[in-house]
Amino acid sequence: MSVEKVKNFFESIGEVEKVQEFAESTATSEMAAEVLNCQLGQIAKTLSFLVDKKPALILVSGDMKIDNKKFKAQFSCRPSMLPVEEVENLIGHAVGGVCPFAVNEGVPIYADESLRRYEVIYPAAGSSNSLVKLNLSEIDKYIKISGWIDVSKSKVV
Predict the structure, then answer these.
(1) Global pTM?
(2) Max CA pair span of the chain
(3) Are 47 and 103 in contact (CB under 8 A)?
(4) Which of 89, 124, 140, 147 has the greatest count of CB atoms below 10 A from its CB?
(5) What 3-state class would DSSP assign to 16?
(6) Cα–Cα distances in angstroms (integers) from residue 24 to residues 3, 38, 46, 93, 129, in the given order
């Protein structure tokens, strides 16, 4: 189970208490925000895309969606999400628990600027009922990000 991989990662750096597990599902941003009683934008959803035919992850606020024009400008290709049946094999975590921790080697992870609005964010931790609480300043400490990018827009029209 990939939550165990995430726990092992945090245990290896002496921070196993960072992983929080819940009786309720946190599989979607909305569910996680309800369980934590926090703002939807504080949930850091991890989206999996194909970039140049290779998997890549983008960590983005739960109240945002990918802006196709910004994505194309950033990566020189149209956004194409990984097929659901390939996510676990290519990323190392199944849909509902995809997270930026303990991912397969060589998968770049990008953090979207939308996250900078919050001091505390909550990415998934490898299962549909686990999260990690991070201060914004801890992102670089626990996530091997390839860079900060701006590829999102508000879900509200």
Answers:
(1) 0.93
(2) 43
(3) no
(4) 124
(5) helix
(6) 15, 15, 19, 19, 6
